[in-house]
Design a protein that fits this description.
binds fe (ii) ion; 0% strand; 328 residues; 13 helices; mainly alpha
Length: 328
């Protein structure tokens, strides 16, 4: 049987449990938080006072912080790219409305609230150039992404397990920075987003765990493939208006490194967590090729640490069109 057919069979086999997994990892729509829970109520007479407070508190946050928050928001707002990508993964049946496509739709519904709440907050903050941000978002959706997972569910679930943890880390760190500057409301908003990301990370990690249980060698090969080619960030095509594709991503990522929101050490930490979570050292029944892939993966964190220690992040802030330094 071809590798593709085995994957399809595995996806079909696991599909019967997806409903239970949705119940385990996602929160019913009627009870989950909504963006308005963290924003001024525009029907209330107190609305303008609350907006005023948001704008006052926003004054205490520095330039690099806004760049990172904007970049995080744009990454969330490019959700159409991620949903359409996942809907096209082998075994995800949009037309048949199977369990996997239900997962993708429900996951998307939860994720959609992230960009929504951050977008509204940024609009009210008065600290950013919304039109420039909107243009970047439109560019990013138009440019799509290229994450090297193909339509392979194994590779895609490695990618999403990794990415959900990465977004947990960055939203959580932004929450901490906001709290340190006395901005409790923004901190709460980012913390609750990070909570969603953690649940999603746990779900995707369980999908991979279940695949390891039935197809260990091919799951190992897929993990190896993804880590060898490196996990690219979903917003790696980021550009500002008038810029070339990808031209803004490195500066955004340098800014996130500089303020400690997401660093190359975090990348290594995530890899280590995945190795531990999937008990990579204990997986049995591997082919010779998969054994070699496992060896590579186990040694990878220390190899990457040596490289990361030598890396230097530029100290100067890049001037993004999204945040006007004049307003600082
Ligand atoms: Fe998200
Ligand atoms: Fe997420």
């Amino acid at each position: 049987m071809s590798l593709k057919n085995v994957r399809l069979e595995v996806m079909q086999f696991l599909e019967k449990d997806v409903d239970a997994l949705i119940e385990k990892y996602l929160i019913p729509i009627e009870t989950i938080w909504q963006p308005t829970d963290f924003l001024p109520d525009s029907e209330s007479p107190k609305f303008f006072d609350e907006v005023k407070e948001i704008r006052e508190l926003a004054k205490d946050l520095p330039y690099d912080f806004w760049v990172v928050l904007v970049g995080d928001m744009i990454t969330e707002e490019a959700l159409p790219t991620y949903e359409s990508w996942l809907m096209d993964v082998e075994g995800v049946g949009q037309i048949e409305r199977n369990g996997w496509s239900k997962w993708v739709r429900h996951w998307t519904g939860e994720e959609n609230r992230h960009g929504d709440v951050l977008n509204k907050y940024l609009y009210l903050s008065g600290r950013v150039n919304m039109r420039e941000i909107e243009k970047t978002t439109q560019h990013l959706i138009a440019d799509g992404f290229d994450i090297g997972t193909d339509r392979d569910p194994y590779k895609n679930f490695v990618y999403t397990s990794f990415q959900e943890l990465a977004t947990y880390i960055s939203h959580n760190r932004v929450a901490k920075l906001a709290k340190e500057r006395g901005n409790k409301q923004l901190s709460k908003m980012c913390r609750i987003i990070s909570g969603d990301e953690m649940r999603h990370h746990n779900a995707y990690s369980e999908f991979v765990e279940r695949i390891f249980a039935v197809d260990p060698s091919q799951m190992m090969m897929a993990f190896h493939y993804m880590m060898k080619q490196k996990i690219t960030m979903p917003a790696h095509f980021l550009r500002e208006s008038g810029g070339q594709i990808s031209s803004a991503f490195e500066e955004f990522s340098n800014t996130a490194q500089r303020i400690g929101v997401y660093t190359s050490m975090d990348y290594i930490d995530i890899l280590e967590k995945l190795l531990k979570r999937w008990e990579i050292e204990k997986v049995t029944g591997l082919t010779d090729e998969a054994e070699k892939a496992r060896d590579y993966l186990i040694k990878l964190p220390s190899r990457m640490t040596r490289i990361a220690e030598r890396m230097k992040v530029p100290e100067n802030s890049f001037e993004f069109k999204w945040v006007e330094p004049a307003k600082l």
